[in-house]
TrEMBL record:
This is Beta-glucosidase. Its EC number is 3.2.1.21. NCBIfam families: BGL (TIGR03356). Keywords: Carbohydrate metabolism, Cellulose degradation, Glycosidase, Hydrolase, Polysaccharide degradation. It catalyses: Hydrolysis of terminal, non-reducing beta-D-glucosyl residues with release of beta-D-glucose. PROSITE patterns: GLYCOSYL_HYDROL_F1_1 (PS00572), GLYCOSYL_HYDROL_F1_2 (PS00653).
Amino acid sequence: MTVPLLPPGFRFGMATSAYQVEGAFDLDGKGPSIWDTFTARPGTIRHGEDGRVAIDHYHRWAEDVAHIAAAGTHDYRFSFSWPRVLPTGTGPVNKPGLDFYDRLVDTLLSHGVRPVPTIYHWDLPQALEDAGGWLSRDTAYALADFAAILAARLGDRVRDWITLNEMSVQTLYGYALDSHAPGRGLGFGALPVAHHQLLAHGLAVSALRAAGAATVGVAAQHFPVSPASGDPADVEAASVFATLTNWLFADPILRGGYPPSLLSLLPVHDGDLEIIAAPLDFYGVNYYEPTRVEAPRAGRDYRGVLEVDIPAGMPFAPVPVPAAERTDFGWAIVPAGLTTILTTLRERYPSLPPVVVTENGASFREPVADRRRIAYLDAHLRAVLDALAAGVDVRGYYVWSALDNFEWAAGFGERFGLIHVDPATLNRTRKESWHWFRTLIAAQPPT
């Protein structure tokens, strides 16, 4: 198989997040996060698993960096555990926690890998959740203070920063539904969560700029949404779903305003939108699969279509996306959907910054001989090439994920990694896809 060739200077990366890999949930002064609390509830996680040990990256980080670097990876996207650095979300810094990230950054740089950290990837300190969590405006300011602490310690070596990851998923899965931490199940009452995360993003951009950050971006989940038919009710249902999952989050960042249908439902203060719309150096897009939606039909069972089930009473219902193949997670494999969402973003936002695909990957359960993953990644990189040909300025592509890890509510059963992690021994083994990725990077044109 010939590998796709991207433009000179294109960045290839791998990605992880703190709760999914680090473990060491109560070591060296770390405080509890909402995921520690959530996974302790019976029935929340498949097979009753949790991230208390995860894949023990907290102790095995040097080995993991060596694997990541040996592939020729340009960038490593990771996240900070907020309660590891600030056990209650505010107050004194936990020195061992911040020291861990200091060592990680130095080791990445010594291997020639650029660190691209995400400030917040869903592991809110439990103390902040007890005080209201993302329903509270104060949490946005707490995150900005956290960003300032990180930049003060690491900003002399870290040049590229991501503020928040997938605000739409935290809002929908964790607060509107009860499938992710903190499991609030508030329905449309979760809309303030969206605004407060967006405010946190804008405030963090300001804090990072003040600390001299070279480039700042965000990682947003995006996917094309299509109606199941031409029926006007289906078209309207798809439009509502796309607004809630895509444009509610992208419009204020890239247009400076919310979709008009939602503005009155959000706790916007004077000046908030100017903060949220602070210019970015890049816009991160996380893509996995498209979504197909219809107006709910009486008596139809909509369970099992998405990773989470949309409750009855919503004005939209997901239906299966036609696809020749699916991942072992059941997700439709539609590489063209990545081209579609990238070109849609470019058309909707004429001032769209350069784009980095900050997550793309698939769960396949083969331990090492993962040829299906290779085909998946190859096809999605070719979809990026199609977007480039259509005029989208795409600068990088990060595989989710570097290593097999704790896949949130799905536990350890879903395997996204380029590096296999044995669930019993935690031994690491490079998969065939890791070797393919190394070949891909080595074949690219010189910068």
